[in-house]
Design a protein that fits this description.
By secondary structure, this protein is of the alpha+beta class. It contains six helices and 14 strands. β4 and β5 form a beta hairpin.
């Protein structure tokens, strides 16, 4: 396998098929744009398992993704895509950077989901941008942006209902999309969906079950991820 890219949480490898790649989930954890770092045993396995189950569920719900199949505990085969440099954030409740920017208390439910866009750039700290920025920077067309917003809201509706059945409240999450290398006109959901990129709170206790346990030094990070995996498995059985 030829290594192609290594990010903060994953590695990408070439395969014999020019239209597919191998995506490896790492045990590394980062926060605050890479300022805080750690490694957790089984993190790659847990995120791979959670993301694989959720992407399979989304595919059945009619959401096209880059997912092909799970290879082993830390690797999946995915369709090769050209990642759009626009990250999509969907917020159902106030938390994280939203509270820092606005001063709003954590945990307030919004009247309807908020959709944000950020420029995918570690060097710049993934700054928030809007449709006008995206147009002038040539990151995506207005038609692409309409598709991203519609797709993100569809994913949000599916995940909000699904996680509620798991006893979890979906606070917010980020998504990445990419153009299929085999058909650049088609944009699909890419990257992963796991507690690394979703805020998930227990419906009964409000306990945080996501990477905020690492960000805020709450402890039991992998125990929370393991609990999320167990609930996801149970509700997809």
């Amino acid at each position: 396998m030829t290594p192609l890219y290594e990010g903060k949480a994953k590695r990408m490898w070439a395969t014999e098929n020019p239209d597919t790649l191998r995506m490896e989930f790492k045990n590394d954890a980062t926060a605050f744009n890479g300022e805080k770092k750690a490694s957790f045993e089984n993190k790659g396995r847990l995120n791979n398992a959670i993301s694989t189950l959720i992407y399979g569920m989304l595919e059945k719900e009619g959401v096209p993704t880059h997912f092909v199949r799970q290879i082993d505990e830390t690797n999946v085969e995915v369709k090769k895509v050209d990642i759009l440099m626009v990250e999509v954030i969907v917020r159902n409740y106030s938390a994280g950077s939203f509270c820092k920017r606005t001063g709003m208390e954590e945990g307030r439910k919004f009247s309807q989901p908020i959709v944000e866009f950020s420029y995918k750039s570690d060097e710049l700290g993934d700054p928030l941008i809007n449709d006008d920025y995206i147009r002038e920077m040539g990151l995506a067309s207005p038609e692409d942006m309409a598709h991203l917003r519609k797709s993100a809201l569809k994913v949000n509706a599916i995940l909000t209902d699904f996680f509620a059945r798991c006893g979890l409240k979906l606070i917010d999450f980020k998504l990445e999309f990419g153009r299929l290398a085999s058909n650049p006109e088609v944009i699909v959901l890419a990257d992963e969906i796991s507690p690394d990129g979703c805020r998930l709170w227990d419906l009964k206790t409000g306990e945080k079950m996501d990477k905020d346990r690492f960000r805020r030094d709450l402890g039991n990070v992998m125990e929370a991820y393991e609990e999320v995996l167990g609930r996801v498995k149970e509700n997809l059985a």
